[in-house]
Amino acid sequence: MASRLKAVSAAVVFLAAAAFAFGEQITRVGVLDIEKVYSVYFRESRAVKELQETRATVLREIGRIDEEVLALEAQKLQAESDRNSDLALKLDTEIFKKKQYREDYRRIKMDQLRKMSERISLSDAFLDELVSAIQLVAESEGFSVILNKSGQFEQFFFFYTKEVDVTEKVIQELVRRAGQKSSGG
Q1: Angle, CA 155 vertex, CA 152 and CA 160 arms, to 5°
Q2: For residue 34, what pLDDT band results from cuts at 50, 70 and 90?
Q3: Could you tell me if 159 and 145 are in contact, meaning their C-beta atoms sit under 8 angstroms apart?
Q4: Element (DSSP H or E) covering residue 45
Q5: Among 33-37, 76-80, 172-176, 179-183, where is mean pLDDT lowest?
Q6: 10 Å Cβ neighbour count for 119?
Q7: Which residues in 2-17 are b (16+ Cβ under 10 Å) and which e?
Q8: Where are the domains of the chain?
Q9: Rounded CA gap, 167 and 118, in Å?
Q10: 64 or 185: which carries more pLDDT confidence?
Q11: Distance (Å, rounded) from C-alpha 73 to C-alpha 68?
């Protein structure tokens, strides 16, 4: 359904562009790769840098816990080698607890990082800034329509001028045709 809607939207844009090309005004259509905008813009964004620092801190902590587990496993192996079953059992319990803690820590922190990342990419401030930048570039470069090139957003259009909006004309044509069919029918 979404691909059909995109195809219809593309056809409408093409027809609108063709109509204007034969009229007084020539429509310029621009294409925007939003995924590239995200990757380049966010690489320099303060919020993304904070996210990356937090991710690095979490990964360092997971690494530290892993080292503790390895050290405990080495101690357990030595205790088993020394036939100290009480110490080996105590260390086994401690290893189990550490591994459980590591998994809980990893799961919780990764979920927090995922949510933090989503907040950044969907923040109103960023989206407002993005729309403002698209509009400025479109208007200053003479584009009447800016289309979404990537599949990251469901939105097909990012910007369009009122001149290329043929919604009312299409509705009128459909109403006209419906009237012809019912009266001529």
Answers
A1: 130
A2: confident
A3: yes
A4: none
A5: 179-183
A6: 12
A7: eeeeeeeeeebbeebb
A8: 2-184
A9: 34
A10: 64
A11: 9
- Sequence-ordered alpha helix ranges (H) in the chain: 2-22, 34-44, 46-81, 85-121, 124-141, 167-184
* Rounded-to-integer distance, Cα 169 and Cα 162, Å: 13
Select the more confidently predicted residue: 112 or 47: 112
Joined tokens for residue 55: 């991710």
Contacts of 95 (CB under 8 A, 6+ apart): 69, 72, 73, 76
Is the pLDDT at 5 greater than 50? The verdict is: no
Compute how many other C-beta atoms are within 10 angstroms of the C-beta atom of residue 107: 10
The 8-class DSSP code of residue 154 comes to S
Dist. CA 94–CA 86, nearest whole Å: 12
